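Can't attach files on this board, so I'm pasting raw text. These are the components:
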Amino acid sequence: MSLWLAFALMTAAAIFAVLWPLGRRKAATGGSDLAVYRDQLDEIGRDRAEGRIGEAEAEAAKIEVSRRLIAAADAAEAGQASAAPSIAPSPWRRRIAAMVGLILLPVGASALYMALGSPQLPGQPLAERMASVRQDRSIQNLVAQVEAHLERNPNDARGYEVIAPVYLRMGRFADAVNARRKLIALSGENSERQSDLGEALAAQGNGVITVDAKAAFERALELDPKNTKALFFIGIAAEQDGDRHKAAAIFTAMLKDAPADAPWVPVVREALTRVGGTPPATAAAPSAPATEQPGPNAADVAAAGQMSEKDRGDMIRGMVARLAERLKENGDDVAGWQRLLRAYMVLGERDKAKSAAGDARKALASDPDKLRQIDDMIKSMGLEG
Amino acid sequence: MTRKQRRLTLIGGSLAVLGIAAALVLFALKDSIVFFNSPSDVVQKQIAPGTRIRVGGLVEPGSLKKGENLQISFKVTDGAHEVSVRYQGIVPDLFREGQGVVAEGRLEPGGLLAADTVLAKHDERYMPREVVDALKKSGRWQEGEMNADAHVVGKKP
Amino acid sequence: MIPEIGHYALVLALGLALIQATVPLYGAARRDAALMQLGTSTAVMQFVFVAGSFAALTACYVTSDFSVANVFENSHSMMPLVYKFTSVWGNHEGSMLLWVLILALFGASVALFGGNLPVTLKANVLAVQAWIACSFYFFILLTSNPFLRLAQPPLEGRDLNPILQDPGLAIHPPLLYLGYVGFSIAFSFAIAALIEGRIDAAWARWVRPWTLAAWMFLTVGIAMGSYWAYYELGWGGFWFWDPVENASLMPWLAGTALLHSAVVMEKRNALKIWTILLAILAFSLSLIGTFLVRSGVLTSVHAFAEDPSRGIFILCILVLFIGGGLSLFAWRAPLLRQGGLFAPVSREGALVFNNLFLTTACLTVFVGTLYPLALEAFNGEKISVGAPFFNLTFAPLFIPLMFAMPFGTLLAWKRGDLLGVAQRLMTAFAIGIAAIAITFAAAGAEHVLAPFGIGLAAFVIIGALVDLAERIALFRAPFATSWSRARGLQRSAWGTAIAHAGVAVTLIGITGAATWGTERIVAMKEGQTITLSGYALTFDGMVQRAGPNFRVLAGKFTLREGGGVVGVMEPSKRTFGARGMTTTEAALLSRGVSQLYLSLGDVNGDGSAAIRFYYKPLVLLIWLGAVVMALGGALSLSDRRLRVGAPKPAAKTALQPAE
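---
Top answer:
Structure tokens for the assembled complex are below.
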């Protein structure tokens, strides 16, 4: 609201600048050449005293300047005489100028601004964001801890796995790419890791599917032709190459094979519409409760990348809640617990992460191997105590 | 002097200075310009040894060798051909394998470039324009790779 | 909210500029005082809005608002506060905003302090100024908008290009822009004069202070840029004849010529058309300078902000203003009344000589800078024109110019006595020759030209002193008379002498650093010592430190002279995480006006470090000279006469009865 008030005040100030001189009775008096010529006469005298000009020349120069002085005085007089009638200006000119200021200026300025500006986006100074969402601070801490850990144990694949998505979210794309690469080097490649690498590379290219990124996605598809993230990005790559048909074909195929309740469906549908295809009408409604894949899977993350901040936050929270539900019923899934803890940390919900860590320990207490795994992770996140 | 004579002096003097300047420019242009070549140009154009040239392209990964006394050698490639470069001294901060580079020096018999100047890019987004052109020509350049605006979501006209 | 306010303020500034560009012009044609007056109020308000817009962008940088794409691209939350400020103009969009801010500042200054201008001239000048402003507002809003937003702001920015994270950069572009854009006033006055079809001596006097101010800023700006390149690029060179440097040198040369020709016009009512042309050219070259830097058409070590698509837009602006300005000139200039002619041997003649050489030098730089471009467009050949070209063409033109300098200041107006002047310069000759002899004796004949450079500089400096002495009749009259004359001497006379001496000081610096400098490039092991020009440098080892947004790898070196320790030098490399870039920070140690320069190269596996070690004698004089020149300009600017005080009320009433 206050933004529009500020705009209104600024517009008023601008209009004032146009109207003010139009309303003034007294015309401003300008300077004239006369002062300059008088000054020049003085100066010739000074130059003469310093010997900068010969006697005869000085006299000649004085005559020249005097002649100009007289001419200028005459001109000024004539000008004043002839200008006298229009000093009282015809009112219609002022009226037109006033109309320009009153109507054209605000209308034109608002039109141009509405075409260019984004008034719906609030300013987001970092400090404010830090204060309102404490997550950022804890992410920084988490990142620092994991980085320190990795500096000591540079071959800990799990560390890279934890930190890569965080880097991606923080916009540290080069680091995300490095972490993804390291992870593949250390734990071998699989389809999901390759597509994650591709995603990081694409982010590094500002959303452009670079050659490297495309290679990674293609490799991912070789390993698993059903990898939705890789499929999706290959479709985007085709779209960026200008090959809309290919993109549409990929997206259509994805939708056809999609599980009815897959959360990435709306995103793909949107992409398909963008490239000019018609989404199949039978695709599931996006609001259908997801039960089969409650964890934030690859496509969800990809989809989240396309959404606004708020929608994305809601979506991630929704997915995390579903995951938590499922783990309450079936606590045997160590990977699920790890994903949940990571998700809480990313969301900045440290307290929930702590309680979830406790739950996980309880649920996994019967299996020492899994317990060790989850303990390691809890330690590495600094969630103990 | 009459008005006419004064005017002539002025015009004559101006022409004389301009003439001298033009002579200097032509002389200097003949003597002190350096042609830019891509590695393919160097291989295909049969440039005479001893010519001073600039070669631009990417530093071929794996080709950088450091020797004694700050001697280094590396290969500049445009994807199609490559030119070996020898240089003694300190290379710029952003000189790296796989990155754009421009080397200037004399061509030795055998196609080796004895460089006395090595320029690298200043910033990770900047690449010497000549290098971009050379890479485009050989098809190694990806349009959009440098597109820094792709992620801007504010409305753009 | 703040970024959107800044965005809207910029749009409103455009709206006001459009009104300012048209209404006062119409008002001047119809002699409607109210419409002309509109120029003043809109110019001031336009400045207020641009300043607000700039402040908003600065606020976004200071608060690290990464929802602004421009901030995300060029800032980092950990960056020291001062660089958050400087990164506002360390990128293309922000620097263009700074450009229009300065343009609006100059426009508002004319509006506020131009009370002594005839009202029609003022209205026309402000309108032309607004045309320039409009085209740049459109350019910014449509192609380089700094207020574009990111819907999902990342948590961290990409950092400012590390090479620009430096105090030198903080001051260099604003100064340079103050110079470039300052010439827009001269341009606007020239176009306004052409529109009115009337130009006289008074015009020159009104233009002079603006040109002088722009020239001062440009001088210091160029020197700053040169010093920045000297210590930041790590090569120890102070001038590379790089297209971007040339782009700032050309307006400087044209502007210097304009300053001098305006004197002739003001005093003798001659060279009128030439002065108008120079005013158009000086600003055109400033625009070309902007074009060269911003479009990336030329390969350049400075090309940190390049984008060809924007280049097309700037090219259109260029064609519009340069083409339009010159066409208007070709059409209207013949209508202007010709000024008087004068004898070749006179002050006027000397100033013409100055103009001739300055513009020719400017032309050779222009050819050298744009020839590669033309050649490539013509037959696709790519060439680079380097320092040898400019040394061969520029120096031969500048030497006679400097030699003529003392003569020019001593010649009388209208008709001069060359022989008499030469006699009065005998002292200067003698000292110049003595300087040559002493330099030869001290430095040997290894560099034959260098002693002559020093001798020429000595001649110019003493010549400037002789000029002052002549003016106050030193040694010819009793001391008390001289003293009172010295106190009564116009500041502009002091300014001229000081500025001319500054040129000579710079010449000494260039001669010293370019000819007697020594260097060593070696790989040093810890504990090793090398010697250079009587200095011994010992490598004590490497240290690592953390900076605010970078890591430092520094080498510790001890410098000794004749056994005694002179100082510790710490050249370093900074690695900036956000961009994965490294910069080299040279270590400088001043000995009087000479400097020792040490920069660090690669550190090898065996612990040895590659270093460049230079001894640069007299190098500081290069920049000191520029400061002295600007000081002379400032002194001249403070001269009361230049301000042509608003017509005194008494004078006005005296005129009234004539009505």
